[in-house]
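Side project, low priority. Logging it here so it doesn't get lost.
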Amino acid sequence: MPRISLIQIRKGTTAEWNSANPVLGSGEPGYDLDLNHLKVGDGSANWNSIQPIGSALHPNINASDSSDNNLANHFVRNLLLDENGHVTGIYVTNSEQIELSTDPSPQIGADLDTNGNNILFGTNDKAVFGSSTLEIFNNGTDSFISESTGKLNLRSPSANIENVDGSKKIAVFDGTSSQTHVELNYEGSKKLETTATGVYVFNAITAATGIYDAIDLGLKDSASSPSHQEGRLFYDSENHALVVYNEESEVTQQLGQEEYLRVRNNTGATITNGTPVIITGSHGNIAPTIAPANAASDVNSRVVGLATHDIENNSFGYVTTYGIVRDIDTSSFSDGDEIFLSTTPGALTATCPVIPNYCAPIGYVIRSHAANGSILVELGKHKLGGGDLKSEANLNLQGIPFVSTVGSDRSGGLLTDANLVYNSGAQELNLGTGGIRFSDGTTQTTSAGGVNKDYVSVTSHYTLTTDNDVVFVNSSAALVNVYIPTASGVGGKEIIVKKTVGSNNVVINPVVGTETIDGNSSFTITSNYESVTLISDNTNWFII
């Protein structure tokens, strides 16, 4: 049927009606587009005071005739609405009326079917259970489940607490198996888990405040030791010590029983496990550099420890400065042997090296074995080898000892001289065939029968030393040059030159060209049996 004309009534949104609040004429309709309310004026009442059609004043407006809206197994017939369009009562098919706004405890005779819709609660409106002890509500910002008197029990085979979009689990409560457990997570990664044997913590444990009274660690033997991971700590039940892993998988440090030094190997070759080492320098401020030690000198015998594993070239490693080094070849020693640094670089010996080498105690052999030997490192002070009284020959108790070998500016070796003996009974100093040299440079030779001068007979050119006193010259074959030593440092030294036979001259020359004899560069003896005696003043020679 075609529309002849269109009749429209006044309409507007809730906000527009409430703002204008007009007076509707008698019988004039007005329609609220938001609330779907229809109001009819009486010519005097404002919009906000007019009851909408279907309210308590109009109970015959049918709300629903569908069996989906059921209450106590009855069809809903009419709804009671207030002036704001809120439901205040329900008429059901048995003509009973439930007043929601006035009944202090409305009763529902069966399950409430929400038909796929929500039950809405306003801010701080609470769903209350029991004797007002369990409450569920939202305060406009946060949500709460509150139990004021008894226990709050949550029962489920498994429960998860997740983030807002459900992409990450915060906590997991699993009761589906015999091994019920709880997990706590951070950013979807497990950090804590309860197990049948205890609590597993993943990653680090950090105490923000407070002090741990005690931490009980499980006992681990060699068969059950955890796999290597730097920073891992556990208790070794065989060595009865805490064990810590560093970055070297070959190193297991028993705390309190061993001391390590982190080092750098830049030698160009691997330093093997058990090698004695010295410090040679530094790798920046990170670690000292090392090299194999040997007992041949003071510097090279300053051992700082034994390598506790194979340290490859251009890499860091660890040296045991005190404690046990294991898995090395000690088959050349016996259990309990004291061992020392060897003169062979990087080697050990059971014998303390003697002068001129150095004795550096390393420690003691615990187990003698070709592959699984062990040494207790207990370093001693290195010193020049030998006993407290050091001698390169059999000791002569009456001999006067002299320093024969210098190891450093604070150590050396002593040697007694059988030709220089003090006779304490006769209070005599017995000299051999040598002599005495005085501080002014003069020398007095000796013999068994008294004091004699050192002499020499020559027939050709000859250079005297400061040990020579007299020279007899035969110039029969040719002219003979006699060179006398420097006058410097031998003040008072006396030299006698005697021409015995020969027709040729004897010429005396200072070995230092700038020195003189009575102001001359040389002195010549022409006659047989003529002699000349020269004395040094520490600068030149003079004829006496």
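Brief comment: Confidence is low (pLDDT under 50) at residues 56-77, 92-97.
Revisit when time allows.
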